[in-house]
Design brief:
Blueprint: E1 6-7, E2 10-15, E3 18-23, H1 33-40, E4 59-66, E5 71-78, E6 91-93, H2 95-98, H3 107-114, H4 124-137, H5 142-147, H6 160-167, H7 175-178, H8 184-187, H9 193-199, E7 211-214, E8 219-222, H10 226-234, E9 241-244, E10 262-265, E11 275-278, E12 281-285, H11 290-303, H12 310-317, H13 323-328, H14 331-340, H15 347-355, E13 358-363, E14 368-371, H16 373-376, E15 384-391, E16 399-406, E17 417-425, E18 431-439, H17 449-455, H18 463-476, H19 488-506, E19 529-533, H20 552-556, E20 573-579, E21 587-592, H21 594-597, E22 602-606, E23 642-648, H22 651-657, E24 662-666, H23 676-681, E25 688-694, E26 705-713, E27 725-730, E28 735-739, H24 744-755, E29 762-766, H25 775-778, H26 780-794, E30 798-801, H27 804-810, E31 817-825, E32 831-843, H28 851-859, E33 867-875, H29 889-907, H30 911-916, H31 924-934, H32 937-950, E34 954-967, E35 973-979, E36 986-990, H33 999-1011, E37 1018-1020, E38 1023-1024, H34 1039-1064, H35 1070-1079, E39 1085-1090, E40 1100-1113, E41 1119-1128, H36 1136-1155, E42 1186-1191, H37 1210-1213, H38 1217-1233, ...
Parallel strand pairs: 1-7, 2-6, 8-10, 9-10, 19-42, 20-30, 28-29, 32-33, 36-37, 41-42
Antiparallel strand pairs: 2-3, 4-5, 4-6, 7-8, 11-12, 12-15, 13-14, 13-15, 16-17, 17-18, 20-23, 21-24, 22-23, 25-33, 26-31, 27-28, 27-30, 29-38, 31-32, 34-40, 35-36, 35-39, 40-41
Helix pairs in contact: 3-6, 11-12, 17-18, 18-19, 24-26, 28-29, 33-34, 34-35
């Protein structure tokens, strides 16, 4: 019987230990918890990045009473997906509430900082909160920790220090796994009593009475029983409605963001959360969260043999999304996504259909029906509720259940193909029945019905039957084209391979050949380990001391402020870029913003016609070759080129209004050319320009082998968690600009020229960036100019923060690169000649050109007087490409190392020996020898060869690469050092941009070392254009050293001024001497400068070598990086923990570039991979299982600043070792497939699991027992 639903005007909940009341007039049903936390409460430690639950930056913790266990539990949740109105009665913790400088830090915050687990710090609050929930829940095994961060993306650190930090808090931690780690009890800070008391107090005084909130355009209903829910539905009339539980579907399909008339919160309906045995079945409520379902399945499956298959269900659900999503997302929600979107490869649908579960549906009339999942997705669900799922019991001796989810990376993405198999055998060992279910084949496909029928009564473990089944599958698996997902042929072949893998997995051992036995198992990833080997010199401390970054605790406690965290100013406005939804080479004819301007809260729209000065954000006074438009002036250069900016009173208003801006275009007369190869194929020589040619000075004559090939790599999205953003505040002098830029000088000049105002009217300030990686060298100029235009026109403060999708669509990425080569060699592998043509894809215009870096690092390690190199650039119909970490050098090192590996394969030589035969007389050969010994290369190669001979469907590979990275000098960089007479403390302001690479930490260490004072005496201020005018871009790895050079210069001046007072009072203290200086009117501020013209500023080489070992599952294409050994040349490290972090982070960024990160365009030039769910940087379980990094010891750089070398970018170049190791593994598989197959296949973009699978060259006719 239903209860009367009463109207209320407010909801209440706790954040930290404080109760908040929200009135209905102040919010809407679409207001998120994240928006309320950040925008209303100004608790900006919680970040907002992707707004789809895919990055983890928004993670907060829900503290609640679990009615099933009668325990208080902590759940990490995505605040960007949680509707605020769902929070009634909740207690929520944000990063600010668990620890801070006043009350002490939580052990999780302290530990992450201590282990140097932060760099830019943008991901740190989310990481901390995810771990906080785990820690407070007591689930502290290292396996749990490693498995719980699939939804937390970190671009900077490479995850290793984060995982090490959090594993140190586990009960099963050991030195063998982790090495040295802090004592938990030394770090732990107990909770405040008031928090404990507040958290266990029920916030919702209404108890379990249903209520509703009436808003202007919608109604929100909260129900506590199924009868109340059905009553609410029955009285809804023809209104549109939405049942709200986890709301995670909104992160997958934008259609679920659409407004409806009625929202019904069903999170507290007990009938939808049942968990009980009913006769021979088990019944689970449809509104059970995926996390709870996993717990139930593991517990019930372990204790009840007839439900032992539940454990496999739990393992499969563990592969769905990530922990915060699973904590709120429900079984019903996942099934409804499949119901509404048949092309969605729902894992819940797949496993429920495979095991024969039944779904109970109830209508508003109380009538129930039981349906299979396949029947359910065709059911009209209007005014019906998915109530429960009923699971059958099985005699597991006669039943085999296996399921798979083959993903592009280890976690947090949907399947390329998912599959479920359930075989029921009779007493004779033949099949009574077979259930074969696949996902992501086509929208109408569920069962392989023909194959299921064929197998009935057959002996599954007979090669003839196996081939019949595979032939049947080949006929009925009709895969559709669904970009950006993998190709239809691959998905079909993968689906067939999974059937074969299942047969291998369940077949009796005596039915299988020894070489095939390992093919049935999936790759098992052990708990990861790491070694960080470096030296320090205690006599120089704090210089060379291994310390965390000085901002680490500010970052792990949410105190660190970014541009988007800046408080709103009075009369604050916001802006959003309007992008051209038109193919390249269209012509923009008109823009009509009138409908958008009619929306309440929208203030203005500006386009190129409103710019008073230059419509250009790349001033030619700097190193730019061509002007680049802020807003499109006619010809559309690339899909999603900005055409204007819409300004309004809130970001929420702009999200709605931006779609109302209408633009018209004349269509293009030609199709877009989106890659170098397309330009070459079209013979568009007008789009190719030769920049430089290197002619050989000799050519060898002992030519016994000729090797030809190609090398192609493509875009990489920088994936800085802080999107391109800017805040501009007009003032009486002009304007203050707070951009997320790596180059203050560009912003100042570009804005001044756009507005036709003097440079001195503009002050640029940058505290830190939430990641940059080169994307914010020049590209932020577009966003900052647009923001400044709106602020100047309106004389009001304006903030612009691009959405994740807009950032991917509109902003340039790493330069794609192609190379065609021919190499002549003798029998000893010595190169007699090398001819190659290199092409860099610059995008829509010839502006930023990385040819110098490509050439230097291509030539760096090897004798090259026989090389003929043609350096060319290409113009394509994509956004202007730009600098990305190790620009040019990645292409240079990658291509030459791939060429050397290819040559070695063709000659049948050990690649190391071939390289040695061609090395220049530099230290690189000694690095290789040291690595061979340290990493035990020869023994491991022999072991791998044996393994590959003994296994057909698992293969291992090992590769070794080297690098000679030439570091140039740039400038100027200026530094101001000020000493305060009150206590002798010091401030530094410099022209570099701190973005996680540790400039501030190194600067402080150098300053403290020079002055002989404690590091705590030194603080580093934000960078700004007044104290550090005209400074060059922070990029190219040079900035940390350059700033430290400037610090030394400034300190030396001050030391000279202080010395007479030290001489007068040799027994005095630092504060005594500073006081004496002040009293004698000594200037206690000094400026230092770094530039190529300063004394002792030199270019120098950086050496590095790396070995990588992988294991590959030939039947899925998946791989695990088993081990990486990396020896890096850093000179004498000024700050070893910082440098180790740079090495690890750079390498993992490169690992992603070469394995998982793929930009996919449609035929019109629109990027399809513009979300966290389909653009995939590495996650925590994609990094090497055994990651060993050594900074070469006793290795001072005689021309470096304090004998150091740069570290930020060079190690990324070494990541080419990963696809080469994969190729070495696949060489064995390719020969197993046919002895005539070539062992080598070329680098062509990332070596994704699709490319691994396809290039294994296996065919289903090879699938035998």
């Amino acid at each position: 019987m239903s209860t009367e639903i009463k109207q209320v005007q407010q909801i209440k909940f706790h954040i930290q230990d404080k109760e908040y009341t929200v009135n209905v007039d102040d919010v809407s049903p679409t207001t998120s918890l994240n928006s309320y936390i950040r925008d209303t409460l100004q608790l900006t430690g919680t970040k907002g990045v992707c707004f789809e639950g895919g990055c983890g930056a928004c993670t907060v913790v829900l503290y609640m009473h679990d009615p099933n266990t009668e325990k208080n539990i902590y759940l990490a949740v995505n605040s960007c997906l949680i509707p605020l109105l769902s929070c009634n009665g909740w207690t929520i913790y944000t990063i600010e509430g668990i620890g801070d400088p006043l009350n002490g830090y939580h052990v999780v915050q302290e530990t992450l900082a201590t282990f140097n687990g932060t760099q830019c710090g943008m991901c740190s609050p989310g990481m901390v909160m995810n771990m906080y929930a785990l820690y407070e829940s007591g689930k502290l095994t290292m396996k749990d920790v490693e498995n719980s961060f699939g939804g937390s993306i970190c671009r900077c650190t490479g995850y290793r220090p984060i995982l090490s930090a959090f594993k140190s808090l586990c009960t099963d931690v050991s030195p063998e796994i982790l090495g040295h780690y802090p004592d938990i009890e030394d770090l732990k800070i107990c909770k405040k009593d008031k928090c404990e008391k507040k958290c266990t107090t029920k916030c919702d005084k209404r108890g379990k009475e249903p209520f509703y909130l009436q808003m202007a355009a919608a109604q929100w209903i909260k129900v506590f029983s199924l009868s109340d829910l059905l009553s609410a539905l029955s009285t809804s009339g023809g209104a549109t409605y939405k049942l709200v539980a986890g709301n995670t579907a909104m992160g997958v399909f934008s259609s679920y963001r659409a407004s409806v008339d009625i929202y019904i919160d069903v999170t507290s309906v007990p009938e939808l959360k049942v968990s009980e045995f009913v006769g021979e079945t088990y019944v689970l409520g449809a509104n059970t969260t995926l996390t709870t379902a996993m717990d139930v399945f593991n517990e019930v499956g372990a204790e009840n043999p007839q439900f032992s298959y539940f454990i496999e269900l739990a393992n499969h659900i563990d592969l769905i999304a990530n922990v915060p999503v699973r904590n709120t997302g429900t079984i019903a929600g996942n099934l409804i996504m499949k119901h509404d979107n048949h092309d969605f490869p729902s894992d819940i649908y797949l496993i429920l259909e495979t095991v024969g579960a039944k779904l109970t549906i109830v209508g508003v009339d109380g009538q129930e029906a039981q349906l299979s999942p396949e029947e359910f997705i065709s059911q009209d669900m209007n005014l019906k509720v998915l109530k429960t799922i009923t699971f059958p019991s099985y005699l597991m001796d006669n039943v085999k259940f296996v399921s798979y989810k083959i993903m592009p990376r280890a976690q947090n993405t949907h399947a390329n193909v998912n599959a479920g198999f359930l075989f029921q055998f009779n007493i004779n060992g033949t099949l009574d029945s077979a259930t074969i279910v696949y996902g992501n084949i086509n929208p109408t496909f569920t069962h392989a019905t023909a194959t299921e029928t064929l197998l009935a009564g057959k002996d599954l473990f007979d090669d003839n039957v196996l081939q019949q089944a595979l032939t049947s599958l080949s006929s009925e698996l009709i895969c559709d084209v669904i970009p950006p997902d993998p190709s239809p042929d691959y998905r079909k072949q993968l689906a067939m391979a999974l059937f074969y893998k299942t047969v291998l997995a369940i077949a009796p051992a005596d039915k299988l050949s020894p070489k095939n036995q390992s093919g049935g198992a999936m790759l098992e990833r052990p708990i990861s380990t790491g070694v960080q080997d470096y030296e320090t010199n205690a006599s120089l401390y704090p210089l060379t001391q291994a310390i965390p970054k000085i901002e680490a605790l500010a970052q792990t406690s949410g105190q660190a402020q970014y541009v988007s965290d800046l408080p709103d100013s009075p009369h604050q406005l916001f802006g959003t870029l309007i992008l051209a939804d038109a193919p390249p080479n269209s012509t923009l004819k008109s823009i009509d913003a009138s409908k958008a301007l009619e929306v309440e809260g929208v203030v203005a729209f500006y386009s190129k016609d409103d710019i008073p000065g230059d419509n250009n954000f790349t001033p030619l006074e700097l190193f730019f070759q061509q002007a680049e438009e802020i807003f499109c002036s006619g010809r559309v250069h690339y899909h999603h080129q900005p055409i204007g900016i819409l300004v309004g009173e809130s970001e929420a208003i702009l999200r709605t209004a931006s779609s109302l801006v209408e633009a018209t275009y004349d269509p293009p007369t030609v199709g877009p050319l989106l890659s170098i190869r397309q330009v070459l194929q079209a013979d568009r020589t007008d789009r190719i320009q030769e920049i430089r040619t290197i002619e050989p000075t000799r050519k060898g004559t002992d030519i016994t082998h000729v090797v030809k090939g190609t090398f192609d790599i493509y875009h990489q999205y920088h994936f800085h968690l802080e999107q391109q953003c800017c805040s501009v505040v007009p003032n009486e002098n002009g304007m203050d600009i707070f951009p997320s830029t790596q180059w203050m000088d560009q912003i100042q000049i570009a804005v001044a020229k756009m507005l036709q105002i003097p440079n001195n009217k503009i002050q640029v300030s940058v505290r830190r960036l939430g990641g940059g990686f080169g994307a914010k060298i020049s590209r932020n100029g577009l966003v900052s100019c647009a923001t400044a235009l709106a602020a100047w026109k309106l004389r009001r403060p304006v903030k612009v923060n691009l959405s994740f999708s807009d950032n991917v669509q509109a902003i340039g990425k790493r330069f794609p690169f192609s190379s065609d080569y021919e190499v002549g060699l003798n029998d000893q592998g010595v190169i007699q000649y090398l001819t190659c043509t290199h092409y860099s894809d610059l995008g829509a215009s010839i502006n930023e050109i990385p040819y110098g870096e490509i050439l230097n690092d291509f030539l760096g390690s090897y004798v090259n007087d026989t090389f003929e190199i043609h350096m060319k650039v290409a113009v394509t119909d994509t956004h202007n490409n730009t600098w990305a970490r190790a620009p040019g050098s990645t292409e240079g090192v990658g291509s030459i190392e791939a060429i050397m590996e290819h040559c070695a394969v063709e000659l049948g030589m050990d690649p190391i020996e071939l390289k040695k035969a061609n090395f220049q007389q530099t230290p690189i050969s000694t690095y290789i020898d040291e690595l061979k010994t340290w990493a035990d290369i020869d023994t491991r190669k022999a072991d791998i060869e044996t393994f590959n001979q003994e296994n057909r469907w698992k293969k291992k590979g090992l590769a070794v690469v080297n690098m000679t990275y030439n570091l140039g000098a740039s400038g100027p960089f200026s530094v101001m050092v000020s000493i305060f007479h009150g206590d002798g403390t010091v401030q530094i302001s410099h022209g570099g941009i701190e973005m996680g690479q540790g400039i501030n930490t190194k600067a402080a260490q150098v300053c403290a070392y020079k002055f002989g004072i404690d590091l705590n005496f030194v603080a580093v201020l934000p960078s700004n254009s007044f104290t550090c005018p005209n400074n060059v871009v922070t990029g190219g790895s040079v900035t940390s050293e350059a700033v430290c050079y400037g610090v030394i210069q400034a300190c030396d001046q001050l030391i000279a001024r202080i010395q007479p007072y030290k001489d007068k009072n040799p027994n005095g203290t630092w504060p005594d001497w500073i006081t004496a200086c002040h009293e004698d009117f000594v200037n206690l501020a000094a400026i230092g400068m770094f530039s190529p013209k300063e004394p002792n500023v030199n270019e120098y080489p950086i050496y590095g070598v790396c070995a990588c070992e992988v294991i590959i599952d030939i039947l899925t294409g998946q791989h695990i990086v088993n081990r990486v050994d990396l020896l890096e040349d850093v000179g004498r490290s000024m700050s070893p923990l910082v440098d180790i972090g740079q090495v690890e982070g750079a390498f993992i960024m490169g690992l992603g570039y070469y394995t998982t990160e793929e930009i996919v365009y449609n035929y019109e030039g629109k990027i399809l991979t513009d979300r966290t769910w389909n653009y995939r940087p590495p996650g925590a379980k994609d990094i090497p299982v055994d990651f060993r990094v050594q900074l070469k010891k006793n290795n001072p750089n005689p021309v470096g600043v304090l004998y150091s070398k740069a570290t930020a970018e060079p190690p990324l170049c070494l990541s080419i070792v990963v696809p080469l190791a994969i190729r070495n593994a696949l060489a064995s598989a390719r020969l197993d497939a046919a002895s005539t197959n070539a062992k080598w296949f070329p680098i062509d973009g990332p070596t994704t699991i699709e490319k691994v699978f396809v290039n294994s060259l296996n065919d289903y006719k090879q699938y035998v027992l």
